[in-house]
Amino acid sequence: MSQSDPNSSAAKPPLLTMRGMVKSFPGVRALRGVDLTLHAGEVLALMGENGAGKSTLMKMLGGAHLPDSGTIAVDGREIAIQSPQDARAAGIGVIYQEFNLVPALNACENIFLGQEVTRAGFVDQRRERRAAAELFKRLGVDINLDLPCARLTTAQQQLIEIAKALSLNARIIVMDEPTAALTAHETERLFEIIRDLRSHGIGIIYISHRMDEIFAIADRIAVMRDGTNVDERRKSKFSRRELIEKMVGRELDHEFPARQVTLGETRLEVLGLSRGDVVQDVSFSVRRGEILALTGLVGAGRTEAVRLIFGADKPDAGEIRLDGKRLSIRSPRDAIAAGIGLLTEDRKHQGLVLGASVRENFGLPNLDRLSTAGFVQMRRERADFAKVTSTLAIRISHADQLARNLSGGNQQKVVLAKWLARNCEVLIFDEPTRGVDVGAKFEIYTLMNQLAADGKAIVMISSELPEVIGMADRILVMHAGTITGEIADARTATQEQIMHYAFGFSDETNSF
Question: Of all helices (H) and strands (E), which one includes residue 404?
Answer without folding.
Answer: none
